[in-house]
Amino acid sequence: MKKLLIASLVAAGALAGAIEFRIEGEHLPHKGAWADGGQNSAVGTRVATSNKNFQKGNDDANKGTGTYGVPAPGKYFVWVRTLDFGEGYRKTQIKINGQSIGKFGDGKVAVKGKPEYKWKRAMLPVELTDKIALEAIPFAGVSRLDSIIFTQDENFKPSDDAAEVTDSIEEMEALD
Description:
mainly beta
C-alpha cells in the first residue's frame, strides 16, 4: 500500500512539472560494508556509514546495492549528499545501472574545523528507463552516505535543510 501511495505521489508530481525522487543511503537493502548510523542534520535523520566490515580493496564485499523503480523514463540529474570531513579520503563511488556517475565525499580542504553535509551533482545526467540498479562503493571504512536525489530539472539545487528535503521530495523504496 505504501509503495502505491509513493508511486501515486510521484506521478502527481510529474503532472505538475519535473519529476524528483530520492534514495536514502541507510535504506539500501543489501548493505555490504554499510551500516545505519545516527547523524544530526541528515535527511531522514540517519546516514549509511561504512563500518568495521569494510575490506580495503574488496569493492564487491563493500558495496551496498538496491534496485528501485523509475516513475517516468527520461534524463535525470543526480545529486549526492555526503558528510565531508575535508580530509580527502572518505569517498564513495556511486554507480547507476553499472555506470559510475562519480566519487562523492571528502574534499581536500578542511571545512571550518568540523564535518559538514554537502550536496554534489554528478557531472553528467543519467538516462533512466524503468529501473535503477544502485551501487554505493565506499573507498574507506569511515565514509558517510546520506541521500541521493534524482531530478529532471537541470536547474534544481537541493536544500541544505534536511526537513525541507524530506517534506518536498518523496523517498523511493527498494524493489528488492
